[in-house]
Design brief:
alpha+beta; Porin; 3 domains; 8-stranded antiparallel β-barrel; 18 strands; flat
């Protein structure tokens, strides 16, 4: 199983390296007078890759390694081609004079046809307007006749409605007078009945007050007798409780004295038993860990990712094989795959400087580390803190880096370099043969860097706009998190 895992990992490494073969193409497009041209279409011959130039005429596109030519085209201009040789491509598109003449002739013919069509539409609109005016006059005459007839009908209906309303109002006035008489008679009868009811209620209220006063006096007398009896009973209960409390305190003092004597005897016997029991437990524990002692070949697979520091974001997978000397020490060697992510670079601020300095290249890299590995556990326990150290060399393929200000600064570089990685972590023994561990590491790695020298003076006595650039290396540092399995 370990050998199959190692062979599969080795087969995947070349395939992942091949995925990096796509290359960038950059350049600029000018018109015949040397002005940058925006909106020009750049097409890779033999593929579907295309791009449109920006407002400053520049473009950047990704093409396959088999693309040989790039074509620049725009409506009204003659198409141009350039060979992809790794340089900064420059296109200069000339105006297509024949295209301009044909376009002007077509526009003149279209204008004449539009004028004739406008004249025809104007004649048709005038005829339609006259017909619409005549139809509108006839419609208004018919509406006027209909309005006069409707006014006559409304006037007749209004006279009939006024007569019916007068009859209704007279009938309502008569009914209202009759209703007022009935209400007055009912109100007089209700007032008489209410007066009789109030007199009866007053008489009943006086009788109820007398009854309540008598009941209250009897209740107060009974309450005084009850309180006197309860006070007598309370005094007797307090005397009984005091006597019981004195007896209970005497019995409790006797019980505590007996328990103290018994406890002293039990403690003395327990000390003798605990000494022999703890000795047996320590002996059994030592025997268990002695039986679980690890020796021989063991494998580790670990995953790591960057946390912070000067290093670019990266992801690692490692396979480590080695010898477990005892439950404390492990030595071995490992191989792996490291993927460093690219970061954006502000070329204007980093490279348009005439000073000196060294800047790490923030570019995407794919490396293959080979390293020696040592680990030491601080204690022999199922949960043990440890210290580990990895040190070795990181192999990488050549990369192509283009400076933004000209072809003379383009260069190839390698991402190889030395590294060292101390770690502190916690190891958890899951079974006798398998562990899982977590660690925090400090990674010091040699990375490719651009070295800037002061700007040079040309033969004409003018100072160069850009600094001189060469490739070197720089030791960068960062922290990482690791998760691993030992089996």
């Amino acid at each position: 199983m370990k050998r199959l895992l190692f062979i599969a990992l080795c087969c995947l490494l070349p395939l992942m390296g091949a995925a990096q073969a796509i290359r960038p193409v950059r350049g600029v497009v000018f018109d015949g007078s040397g002005v940058p041209m925006a909106g020009a279409t750049l097409t890779a011959i033999g593929s579907t890759a295309s791009q449109v130039s920006g407002t400053d005429g520049t473009f950047e596109m990704m093409v396959s390694p088999y693309t040989k030519f790039v074509e620049a085209s725009k409506e009204g201009y003659i198409t141009a081609q350039a060979e992809v040789d790794g340089s900064y491509l420059v296109f200069k598109l000339q105006v297509d004079k024949k295209y301009a003449e044909n376009k002007a002739k077509a526009e003149e013919e279209a204008r004449k046809a539009a004028e004739a069509e406008n004249a025809r539409l104007a004649a048709e609109a005038e005829a339609a307007r006259l017909a619409a005016e005549k139809a509108e006059q006839e419609r208004k005459a018919a509406e006027e006749r209909k309005r006069i007839e409707e006014e006559k009908r409304i006037a007749a209906e209004k006279v009939a409605a006024e007569k019916a309303e007068r009859d209704r109002l007279a009938a309502e006035a008569k009914a209202k007078a009759d209703e007022e008489k009935r209400i007055a008679a009912e109100k007089a009868a209700a007032e008489k009945a209410e007066a009789a009811k109030c007199a009866a209620e007053e008489k009943a209220r006086i009788a109820e007050e007398k009854r309540i006063a008598a009941e209250k006096a009897a209740a107060e007398k009974a309450e005084k007798a009850r309180l006197a009896a309860e006070e007598k009973k309370r005094i007797e209960e307090e005397k009984r409780i005091a006597a019981e409390k004195a007896a209970a305190e005497k019995a409790e003092r006797q019980r505590i004295a007996a328990e103290e004597k018994s406890k002293q005897s039990a403690v003395k016997a327990s000390k003798e038993d605990d000494g022999s029991r703890l000795a047996k437990q320590e002996e059994a524990k030592a025997k268990v860990w002695q039986e679980a002692e690890l020796r021989g070949y063991r494998s580790q697979v670990e995953f790591a990712f960057a946390m912070d520091g000067e290093l670019m974001p990266y992801y690692n997978i490692h396979y480590i094989g080695g010898y477990q000397i005892n439950n404390y020490f492990y030595v071995g060697a490992g191989v792996g795959l490291s993927i460093y992510g690219a970061e954006d670079v502000n070329y204007n601020s980093k490279y348009n400087s005439k000073g000196v300095g060294k800047e790490q290249l923030k570019l995407e890299t794919l490396n293959y580390p080979v390293f020696a590995y040592f680990r030491a556990n601080f204690i022999d326990n199922r949960c043990a803190p440890f210290f580990a150290l990895s040190a070795g060399y990181r192999f990488g393929t050549s990369r192509y880096f283009r400076m933004p200000w000209g072809r003379e600064a383009d260069m190839n570089y390698k991402t190889s370099g030395m590294f060292v990685n101390p770690q502190f972590g916690l190891n958890l023994r899951m079974t006798k043969k398998m562990d899982i561990y977590f660690a925090v590491g400090y990674n010091l790695a040699q990375m490719p860097a651009a070295i800037y020298s002061p700007a040079v003076v040309t033969k004409q006595g003018e100072e160069s706009r850009y600094p001189r650039v060469s490739l070197g290396s720089k030791f960068c540092h960062g922290f990482d998190l690791r998760l691993g399995f030992t089996f």
